[in-house]
Structure formats: structure tokens, C-alpha cells
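for the recovery benchmark. C-alpha cells below, seq after
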């Protein structure tokens, strides 16, 4: 199984990181992308990618913290794109739930990172919270289909998923697809082409049922895989095989 979006660089894992990683291996996790979204978490993601063969890094700047990003940070991210285990730029996007960063600043930082990703030819990881139309519009305006990427922890409609897939994006699902009341994610996970489907944890956040409220971790991605396999009425092994192939294709990982 391939956990396409994890934050093992978060402080919630400081005490028992090695145990968490061992449980992931024991559950059959073959690859993890650890996502950095500010200076400390980017450094943490790179350290993990350098330490473990099966861990890769994504580097970017989170929209909530867009107001903190300097031109030097953007230059640093561009330099890090040359690192052999950096496989994507992000997470980036728009988050209108929190108001730390003004919308115009978020949009500027989002556009700058898409342009950077096109320059370094890496896919992008998109964070969208309560900002769907603006996210889709900016992806289109900036020609993001040139690099494509992932709509991380997707919660939108089937129509929005189709718009994103038309722009060369994969649709990734995490813990919420296992929740009983998650009608839209379940519908999308069932209906989209399987070659555009990915799984993730977004750990330590968004633990799947039956572990809601607990700290999430990569080994729990199996609950996401099981839920989607059941929705699509296919064997779990087929779902795992396809989503792993999809993630390796997107991230250009050959092993």
C-alpha cells in the first residue's frame, strides 16, 4: 500500500516515530510520501526521506501560513526540488476556513508555487478547504495540467473531480471516505476511473472509522483501502495494486 500523504514530521510522532514506521511496514505499507508545508516540516520531511528507503518527501507552503512565506523560502523550495527523494511540490492551495492569511496572499503564494512546479517539472499536491471554485480556477489559469498532481483528501463533488481529472490530477481519499455520513467522497471514490484514484492518511489527522478521534498513522491507510474496495465491489488486492501503481506513476518512483 502507498500512503500518498502523511505528516510523520509532525510533533505528534516525536515520542514513538520508529514504532509508527515499524507498524506501517508490518501492515504492508511499501511507500510513504511525507509532506512538508513550512520550514520545520520541510526539514523534517527531508530528514525522514534521507533516513528511510521507502519514505519520500514533498516540499511546499501551506495556505494557512502563506502570509509567512518569504521570497527566500520560495527559492529554497526550488533548490530542494533537485533532491533525489523530493517527488512533488506541496502541499499548496487555498484554505478559507482559517483567516490567518488573507485570501489575496494565499492566492499569490499558490500561483507562485504552481509556477515553480512547472519550472522544476514536479507534480503538485493541492490543499483545498472551503475554496473549491477558486482552487479550480487558479489551477486552470496557471496551466497546472502541465505537471498535474493530487487533489489531496478530496471532499468535492463528482463534477469537480472530473474537472480536476481533466487537468491531469489524481483524486486522493483519506479517513473521511470511511465515515458513514460522507456521501460525496463515497460517490466520487466509487465512480471515478480507478487509474485516477489514490489513498492517503493525512496522519496524524483524520483517522478513519473505527479509529476516529485517535491519532492517525500510515498503517491505518488499510481502512481507507478497504472502504473504497467495498464501495467499488472489487477485491482489496486489486484496489491496493492499482492505487500503488497510480502513485508510483505520478511521483515517478520506479522501485
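predicted aa per position
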Amino acid at each position: 500500500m502507498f500512503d500518498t500523504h502523511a505528516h510523520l514530521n509532525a510533533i505528534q510522532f516525536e515520542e514513538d516515530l520508529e514504532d509508527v514506521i515499524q507498524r506501517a511496514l508490518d501492515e504492508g505499507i511499501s511507500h510513504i510520501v511525507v509532506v512538508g508545508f513550512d520550514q520545520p516540516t520541510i526539514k523534517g520531511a527531508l530528514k525522514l526521506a534521507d533516513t528511510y528507503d521507502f519514505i519520500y518527501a514533498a516540499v511546499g507552503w501551506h495556505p494557512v501560513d502563506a502570509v509567512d512565506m518569504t521570497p527566500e523560502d520560495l527559492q529554497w523550495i526550488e533548490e530542494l526540488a533537485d533532491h533525489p527523494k523530493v517527488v512533488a511540490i506541496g502541499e499548496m492551495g487555498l484554505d478559507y476556513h482559517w483567516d490567518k492569511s488573507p485570501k489575496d496572499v494565499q492566492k499569490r503564494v499558490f500561483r507562485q508555487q504552481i509556477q515553480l512546479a512547472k519550472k522544476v517539472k514536479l507534480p503538485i499536491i493541492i490543499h483545498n478547504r472551503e475554496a473549491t471554485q477558486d482552487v479550480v480556477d487558479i489551477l486552470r489559469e496557471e496551466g497546472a495540467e502541465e505537471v498535474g498532481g493530487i487533489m489531496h483528501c478530496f471532499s468535492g463533488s463528482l463534477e469537480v473531480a472530473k474537472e480536476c481529472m481533466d487537468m491531469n490530477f489524481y483524486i486522493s481519499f483519506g479517513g473521511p471516505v470511511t465515515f458513514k455520513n460522507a456521501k460525496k467522497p463515497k460517490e466520487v471514490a466509487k465512480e471515478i476511473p480507478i487509474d485516477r484514484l489514490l489513498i492517503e492518511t493525512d496522519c496524524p489527522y483524520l483517522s478513519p472509522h473505527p479509529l476516529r478521534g485517535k491519532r492517525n498513522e500510515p498503517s491505518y491507510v488499510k481502512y481507507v483501502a478497504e472502504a473504497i474496495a467495498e464501495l467499488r465491489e472489487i477485491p482489496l488486492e486489486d484496489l491496493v495494486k492499482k492505487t500503488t501503481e497510480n502513485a508510483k506513476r505520478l511521483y515517478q518512483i520506479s522501485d
